[in-house]
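Appendix B. Worked example

We walk through a single record from start to finish. Start with the input: the chain for Large ribosomal subunit protein bL33, Pseudonocardia kongjuensis, length 55.
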Amino acid sequence: MAKTTDVRPIVKLRSTAGTGTTYVTRKNRRNDPDRLVLRKYDPKIRRHVEFKEER
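Next comes the structure step. The output line below is what the pipeline stores for this chain.
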């Protein structure tokens, strides 16, 4: 069971708009070794913004 957590760790995605909104997801370290950046919906400002991985 520990093997799956090593390959797919849980990461927090924080909004770049400064609202403090976060998403929690898993990522594959082999495919995405760098920090993850996804464009997702921020409900506080009601628009899509970039969410960057926080460690």
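Two observations about the output. The chain has a mean pLDDT of 92. The chain has one domain: 2-54.
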